[in-house]
Amino acid sequence: MIQIKNSVQIESMRRACRVAADVLDRLCAMVAPGMSTLDLDMEAKALIEQYGATSASYNYKVGRLRYPSYICISVNEEIVHGIARADKILRMGDIVSLDVCVYVDGWVGDNARTVSVGPVSQEVERLLRVTREALDIGIDLARAGNKVGDISHGIQTHVEASRFGIVREFVGHGVGRGLHEEPQVPNYGQKGRGPRLVPGMTICIEPMVTMGSHRLRIGQDGWVAIASDGKPSAHFEHTVLITETEAEVLTLPSSGGLSK
Ligand code: MF3
Ligand code: CO
After folding, report:
1. Backbone Cα Rg of the chain
2. DSSP string for 58-100
3. 184: helix, coil or strand?
4. Distance from Cα 259 to the centre of ligand 2, integer Å
5. How far is the CA of 235 from the centre of ligand 2 (A)?
6. pLDDT per position as a tens digit, 78-134
7. Phi, psi dihedrals of residue 148, rounded to the nearest 5°
8. Looking at the CA of 239, which ligand is closest?
């Protein structure tokens, strides 16, 4: 069942998403060489508390596994679901993907961004730009009357035309009281397929893009997804509301900040 949110529920989603966006925006501004990913996670924990929110990632369960960090922090060849570690130190030339999902008054906001630590190569700059563009294309296609497959196809086409890989194993999703609701929003697929988009649906669009092969493996900790060929990977995500016209991006920081 795909939930259609009413105006009161949408207001709650707006609040949760604004917090998720502000936390992500402030964390991205803190990223600096010499910091560990655990330092960033502790900053995330403090910020989330400061906003009166709770992490939707912390203790997230898949089977018998519980996710142990407050946000996901994935460095370079790590694609998503990186776990914070004291011995994982950010260095100049790295890229780091931060994925912040929070509960505010029982509603979820979810967003992610990849930032560079100091200057990076032109090819890595291009990876970040193309991933960000793929998200924008997905948002543009997230219109009432379109199908989920239109979003999927638009993202895949842009990424593959740019000669990058699009991840298959993880997908975007509906979001609301739950972090993962229906429908699934794959980043690959065919136009005109899948559920029809209807005003009042709230979905997360989140392309995960690899510089080389899209193949991945799961790390020793059972969570982190790593590009099999060891090449860098980027991830951008927004929570959006389907309206009668263009989608409303709910995860915009109140500052107007770094993200669109
Ligand atoms: N933002 C991620 C998603 O869209 C959240 C992952 S939570 C984790 O699924 F606990 F599984 F890491
Ligand atoms: Co998500």
Report:
1. 17
2. TT-EETTEE--SSSEEEETTEEE-PPP-TT-B--TT-EEEEEE
3. strand
4. 16
5. 10
6. 999 999 999 999 999 999 999 999 999 999 999 999 999 999 999 999 999 999 999
7. -55, -40
8. 2
Quick one: 7 exposed, middle or buried, by C-beta within 10 A (0-12, 13-18, 19+)? exposed
**Residue keyed to tokens 């009413």:** 6
Q: In this model, does residue 260 exceed pLDDT 80?
A: no
Ligand nearest to the CA of 238: 2
Tokens of 110: 């979810």
Are 236 and 135 contacting, i.e. CB atoms less than 8 angstroms apart? yes
- H-only helix segments in the chain: 7-30, 37-50, 122-141, 148-161
Instruction: List, as ranges, residues with CB under 5 A of the ion ligand 2.
Output: 110, 204
Per-residue tokens: 249: 């991006």
Q: Is residue 240 pLDDT above 90, yes or no?
A: yes
Average model confidence (pLDDT) across the chain: 97
Atom 8 of ligand 1, nearest CA residue? 57
* Domains of the chain listed by start with CATH number: 7-249 (3.90.230.10)
The pTM of the full predicted model, rounded to 2 decimals, is 0.97
Give me the pLDDT at residue 79, please.
99
pLDDT digits (tens, 9 = 90+) for 163-193: 999 999 999 999 999 999 999 999 999 999 9
